[in-house]
């Protein structure tokens, strides 16, 4: 199996906007499945609705493109019936944490053996740039024209609190680290949650003075604090600056798993 | 294996029918008066290699049984009115993706939370039209505990035959009453027509229904709720393709209504004919026993697609009487297919129709001339 064979070639080119980070994340995910030597016939991709959700259609294995926010319960059904399959979920910040928020916390609580890759571009991209539960405080969107006045979700903190066995956060800039994290997530029994902070120059950048893709990626990189450094800072009493986020492997544990290989 | 005879309530018999039909995955969320279905499945499935999961809500339950179906299992969920409403989004997804699965709705009084412990038949139109867009479904309506078992088996076979969600539209009375039931060991199971290499997952085969591309068979099937071509790939901007896809999915069921039809016809030469389904069927059967040879009866075990040709079996009918535990939902459907006057005998609140009430409705029907007459019971 080659990396190219994991792609559904007759569906390319993809529909993502120029400069979108989702293609990078799809590439890292398929690189991970290929490097692990997964059986394509025993791998299912599941997605909900939104830009992220189209990723399942570009994979050559069986795939379910489902309803808005419901990817995790669909994936739960697949996994419960086929525990020897690898089930990987593509989702976005709006899909996962707004309409799908309750499914998210319960999938983590069950610690069902899924790998969830969340493409967090902090905006509703496909619907045209509305605010999401992850839109930064003060950011402009079509539904927050005077600036977002709600605090954003920390999705990794939610996953950790709810019970996921593996939690990591990277950005679309960190392609090697991201690929390794997705590999680790697939290999870790239980729910693995990998959040990827990614750029949306079309819907987010254009409204927030970051029209250039390179600007957005630079901001993501500049705001990333490696977990080791963040831990050292915390020990020294230095708080995380507003707007910064921790990247790295945040949780790896071995709590009881639902739907794993027996 | 031999048949077992037990004294069970309808919900339990439904679960046993599902197991007999080969259902090995059940996802559900507790709601009165359906919960015994889930409880029986939770107890039984792990012992026979199946899986039960209690999901966080009905949206998730419906999603999980669709995912489980694509993973290769016969799958079912059970709910009641408010839960059925929540399932509607994913019921439309099952219709659009042609996913075989079974949904049991043990109806209670509505709208909203209404009467959790009382029977009703208020979700009949929702079963047919509840989700957005044009689609068709199959729905069965048992009127005894034995039929809860038998029609649950049939629901799974129809789901696979037509690649569609199938509903068991029962009610609190049938779900909770106890009767003798024969748990048949030799139920007929229609095999799912599997997609084979070279076929397209959404191109109809010889029987008008596409082969099912079960996940894990190496076929690399892509399934989407978006309008899709015969490969299953999204194709949302073609008016012609959308029309072709939606019309085909509706026709595969509506054109087969005579094949799907399952009715009892009693006294076809009668002038006053009762049309019933579910719990009211029992009262009609008592009326016919009390007044032998006078009234006709069309008992619908399948309500959707509506078996309209069966109305023609009653050539001497001067009026149809439709007793329902709603304000005339199926009577409206009957009206679409006949010019014979219709008397609706609606009853809400959970109390069953009495024989005296049905006799009164029949007496009104004997002189009815208006297209639709509502009798006050």
General description of the model:
The complex is a heterodimer of chains A (262) and B (377). Chain A is of the alpha/beta class and 262 residues long. Chain A has one domain: 3-Layer(aba) Sandwich (Rossmann fold), CATH 3.40.50.970. Chain A has eight helices and eight strands. Chain A has helices at residues 22-35, 71-81, 93-99, 101-110, 155-162, 175-187, 213-223, 227-235; strands at residues 43-47, 62-65, 86-92, 115-120, 166-171, 192-197, 224-226, 245-252. In chain A, strands 2-1-3-4-6-5-8-7 form an eight-stranded mixed β-sheet, sandwiched between helices. In chain A, helix 1 (22-35) crosses helix 6 (175-187) and helix 4 packs across helix 5. Chain A is globular, with a radius of gyration of 17 Å. The mean pLDDT of chain A is 97. Chain B has two domains: 1-260, Rossmann fold (3-Layer(aba) Sandwich), CATH 3.40.50.970; 263-374, Rossmann fold (3-Layer(aba) Sandwich), CATH 3.40.50. Chain B is built from twelve helices and 17 strands. In chain B, the strands form three sheets. In chain B, strands 2, 3, 4, 5, 6, 7, 8 and 14 form an eight-stranded mixed β-sheet that branches. In chain B, helix 1 (10-20) packs across helix 2 (35-44). The model of chain B has no long low-confidence stretch (mean pLDDT 97). The chains are: A alpha/beta (262), B alpha/beta (377). Chain A: InterPro entries: 2-oxoacid:Fd_oxidoreductase (IPR051457), THDP-binding (IPR029061), TPP_enzyme_TPP-bd (IPR011766).
């Amino acid at each position: 199996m080659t990396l190219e064979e994991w792609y559904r070639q007759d569906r390319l080119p993809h529909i993502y906007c120029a400069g979108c980070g989702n293609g990078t994340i799809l590439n890292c995910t398929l690189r991970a499945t290929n490097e692990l030597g997964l059986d394509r016939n025993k791998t299912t991709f599941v997605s909900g609705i939104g830009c992220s959700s189209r990723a399942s259609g570009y994979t050559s294995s069986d795939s379910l493109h489902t309803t808005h926010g419901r990817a995790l319960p669909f994936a739960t059904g697949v996994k419960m019936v086929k525990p020897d399959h690898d089930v990987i979920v593509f989702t976005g910040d709006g899909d996962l944490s707004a309409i799908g928020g309750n499914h998210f916390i319960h999938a983590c609580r069950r610690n069902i053996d899924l790998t969830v890759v969340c493409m967090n571009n902090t905006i509703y991209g496909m619907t045209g740039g509305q605010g999401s539960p992850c839109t930064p405080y003060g950011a402009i969107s079509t539904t927050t024209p005077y600036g977002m006045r709600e605090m954003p979700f920390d999705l990794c903190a939610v996953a950790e609190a709810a019970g996921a066995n593996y939690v990591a956060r990277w950005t679309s800039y960190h392609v090697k680290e991201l690929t390794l994290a997705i590999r680790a997530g697939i290999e870790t029994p239980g729910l693995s949650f990998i959040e990827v902070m990614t750029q949306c120059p079309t819907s987010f950048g254009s409204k927030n003075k970051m029209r250039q893709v390179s600007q957005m990626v630079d901001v993501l990189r500049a705001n990333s604090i490696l977990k080791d450094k963040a831990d050292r800072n915390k020990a020294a009493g230095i708080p995380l600056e507003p707007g910064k986020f921790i990247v790295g492997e945040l949780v790896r544990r071995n709590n009881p798993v639902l739907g794993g290989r027996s | 294996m031999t048949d077992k005879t037990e004294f069970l309530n309808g919900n339990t018999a439904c679960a046993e029918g599902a197991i007999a039909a080969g259902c090995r995955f059940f996802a559900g969320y507790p709601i009165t008066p359906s919960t015994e279905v889930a409880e029986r499945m939770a107890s039984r499935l792990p012992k026979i290699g199946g899986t039960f999961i209690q999901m966080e809500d009905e949206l998730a339950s419906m999603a999980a049984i669709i995912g489980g179906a694509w993973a290769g299992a016969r799958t079912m969920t059970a709910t009641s009115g408010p839960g059925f409403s929540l399932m509607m989004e994913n019921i439309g997804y099952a219709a659009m993706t042609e996913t075989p699965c079974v949904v049991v709705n043990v109806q209670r009084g509505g709208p909203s939370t209404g009467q959790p412990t009382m029977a009703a038949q208020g979700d009949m139109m929702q079963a047919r039209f509840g989700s957005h867009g044009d689609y068709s479904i199959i729905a069965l309506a048992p009127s005894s505990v034995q039929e809860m078992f038998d029609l649950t088996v049939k629901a799974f076979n129809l789901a696979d035959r037509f690649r569609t969600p199938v509903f068991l539209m029962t009610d609190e009375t049938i779900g909770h009453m106890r009767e003798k039931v024969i748990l048949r060991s030799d139920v007929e199971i229609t095999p799912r027509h599997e997609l084979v290499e070279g076929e397209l997952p959404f191109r109809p085969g010889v029987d008008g229904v596409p082969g099912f591309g079960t996940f894990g068979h190496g076929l690399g099937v892509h399934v989407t709720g978006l309008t899709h071509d015969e490969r299953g790939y999204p194709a949302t901007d073609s008016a012609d393709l959308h029309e072709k896809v939606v019309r085909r999915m509706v026709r595969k069921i509506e054109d087969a209504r005579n094949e799907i039809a399952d009715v009892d016809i009693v006294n076809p030469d009668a002038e006053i004919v009762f049309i019933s389904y579910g719990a009211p069927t029992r009262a009609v059967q008592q009326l016919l026993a009390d007044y032998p040879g006078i009234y006709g009866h069309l008992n619908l075990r399948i309500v959707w697609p509506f078996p309209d040709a069966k109305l023609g079996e009653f050539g001497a009918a001067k009026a149809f009487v439709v007793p329902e535990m709603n304000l005339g939902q199926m009577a409206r459907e009957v009206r679409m297919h006949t010019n014979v006057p219709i008397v609706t005998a609606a009853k809400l609140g959970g109390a069953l129709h009495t024989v005296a009430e049905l006799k009164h409705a029949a007496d009104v029907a004997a002189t009815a001339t208006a297209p639709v007459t509502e009798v006050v019971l």
